[in-house]
Amino acid sequence: MEEAFGRPPKTKSLLINITPLVDVTLLLLIFFMVTATFREMSAMDIEVPTAQSGIVQPVTGCEIAIAADGGLTFNETPVTQDELPHLLREYVSERPDGDVTIRADKRVPYESVANVLDMVRLEGVVHVTLPVTPRSS
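Below the sequence we write its predicted structure tokens.
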């Protein structure tokens, strides 16, 4: 069937607009990225003691972890007690005002924590943090 003047009839082209689909997908991606919670993973499974006055603070400097079996890590790297003073000395030379967090499992003997604290103090670290889990009242 021809239109007047010998032209073929116009056919409608079907276009699928995917712009709204892309928009919704990106909005969902952004939503899940913003609302996702990230759990801090550590090299050792440490259960720190609880305290009524405890508050959650981020680790700003280096972290020394003492596991229940006596194992030590320095910034997530397993170390021995003989290696720890050398690593602390390097850390203090790079960051003289740096913080050190000693995260000890609640089953670790007090003497082990005191020994590590002594090593940290002997290397000249002034700011030391001993984290606890806040106790709910």
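The CA atoms of residues 50 and 133 lie 4 Å apart.
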